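User: Here's a chain of 150 residues. Predict its fold as C-alpha cells.
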Amino acid sequence: MEGIPRRPGTYALILRVEEARWVQVGRLGKFRIPAGWLAYVGSARGPGGLSARLARHLRHPKPARWHIDFLQPAAQPTAVWWTTGTERRECLWAAALARMPGASRPVPGFGSSDCRCPAHLVHFPEPPDREGFIRLTGEEGVVEVPIKAR
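Assistant: Prediction complete.
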C-alpha cells in the first residue's frame, strides 16, 4: 500500500456503511450493522508489517478468515489511521474510540478474540474525529491515509 510502511504497528481501518445491513460474522453470529461509520482496530506484527496487513484487508475478493473480512460486502473502506511500533496498542485504541461521542459497539467480541476487550469494532453516526482520538490516546504520531473507492 502506498504511504503505509512495511513495519510493525497499530491501525484503525475507517469504513463507511451506506445503509444498515445484517451481516453474518463467522461464528460470532448475525448482527445488524447500522448505517454510518465503523472503526476497526488491529495490529500488524508479521512479515510486511502494516503495509501487508492492510493490503490483505483491502483485497477483494478474498476468503473470509478474520472478523473484518465478513464486513466487506457491507462496508466501504475510506481511510486508515496508523502508527508504527511493536507495543500492543490496539486495546488502548479500541477503548479510546469507544469513549468518543456517539460511539457504540455493534458486534460484541468483534476483532477481540485474543484479548478481553468488549470489541475492536466501533460504530459512529458521523465520521470519527482523528484529532479527538489523538487527544484521548496521547498518540501524536497517528497518520491518516485516505483509501480510494474500489
